[in-house]
Amino acid sequence: MQALCRVARRLYSTQPPERAASALPKLAATARDASAPMAVRERRERKRAHLKPPTDSDLTPSEYSGYRRALAKGELMDQRGRDMTEAQWLDALNERRTRLRGLKVTDNNGEKELQVVGQRIYLPNIIFRMVRNHTPTGKPYNPYEATFRVPMSVTKTDVRSYLSAMYGVKTTYIRTANYFSPLYRKYNGAKATRSYRTYKRAVVGLVDPFYYPEAMEDMTAEDRKERMEWLNEKFALDALKRWRRHELVRTSLSGSKNWRFTGHLRRDKILKAVARSRSRMLREVEDMKEELADKRAQGIPIFSDTKRGSQPSKWREALLAN
């Protein structure tokens, strides 16, 4: 009877057990909380103070409420009559969240084995395109988060299974958003969409940090120059750009006589090139005027057929010597 009463009292316990270290890294948990949607963060701020978790707790307000509710109901008691700590409950919750699709854990004489119960897929024909995370101006880059562009048919469990099976990446959360192509009118007036502009964005939380390559605008001048030289050496970007412009002008001016490519396509660049040529000509005229004025001051005869930089003939040299 005393044992039953003791169990009954523990079913309604409100004092949580001592905390232990969580398997989820502290920085990963912080990054997960910071990336929560705006509606979730606003809802957490509206909660009363006694419903929010302590400052040293790794649980979010929703997880803390679920943990206290299960603790009060006695659902966290083990066979020895002890309650699970917050870290143990969070590890079990994260393990359930990150379970892989198509796998089943079996107990073989006390050893856990993974059994494939789903259909194996070899060489999947889906493309995961990794892009840079959206980082607001003045905010640091979040290395515990990765962004992918995936097909519309891919689900969150597919993303988790693909990253774990192919690259061994452990995830903490996955948030997806669908982006549809805007409507445009065809030649017959009908409305349609462009399939290549329709995609699904998957924001994945990471256990281990991953630092995306530094953007060009964030590099120093020397690093940026080194990166551009490497890109030109490997991919010939400048040559491709020049050939593309040349082909564009050649096809647009096909059939024109005496055509040659000057390297300028836009009207503003053409006007700048004309202005540079005109200023160069004016400088040459001014230099010629100064040269003629110096010769007049020195009493040197000036001949109209004398070109700038050319040497006078022998009879002119004799005339000047006399």
From TrEMBL:
It comes from the Eukaryota. Residues 14-65 are annotated as: Disordered. InterPro entries: Nucleotide-bd_a/b_plait_sf (IPR012677), Ribosomal_uL23-like (IPR013025), Ribosomal_uL23/eL15/eS24_sf (IPR012678). GO terms for molecular function: structural constituent of ribosome. One of its GO terms (cellular component) is mitochondrial large ribosomal subunit. GO terms for biological process: mitochondrial translation. It holds the Pfam family Ribosomal_L23. Keywords: Coiled coil, Ribonucleoprotein, Ribosomal protein. Residues 271-298 form a coiled coil. Residues 20-31 have a biased composition (Low complexity). The keyword Ribosomal protein applies. PANTHER family: LARGE RIBOSOMAL SUBUNIT PROTEIN UL23M (PTHR12059:SF5), RIBOSOMAL PROTEIN L23-RELATED (PTHR12059). Belongs to the universal ribosomal protein uL23 family. This is Large ribosomal subunit protein uL23m. It comes from Suillus placidus.
